[in-house]
Amino acid sequence: MIELKGSMKTISNYMISKWGMEALGATSRLNGLPARLHKQFPMITHEKFSEYTASVSHLQTVWLMLGLFIVVFLVLADIGLHQIESDTRSS
């Protein structure tokens, strides 16, 4: 959508939405779709994003990252649930 630079690009790697958008863009072959504006004005170039590369290796990387998010969230949920079980405060 927009190009991030510097620390914002680093922070974006820890956002699940980045990887979800990459997966959607790659599976729908977003870079290969003609832009409606490009049809009306051929002199405007259609920008292609490396994040939406429709290749097997790129999609495997994206799915691996999404899988890592799932594992991390499951571990955090398990830790949180075990802390509830061991809570000795009276209610």
From TrEMBL:
Tell me the keywords, alphabetical order: Membrane, Transmembrane, Transmembrane helix
Q: Where are the transmembrane segments?
A: 62-81
> Per its UniProt entry, which superkingdom is the organism in?
Bacteria
| UniProt protein name | Uncharacterized protein
Q: Which organism is it from?
A: Ligilactobacillus hayakitensis DSM 18933 = JCM 14209
UniProt lineage: Bacteria, Bacillati, Bacillota, Bacilli, Lactobacillales
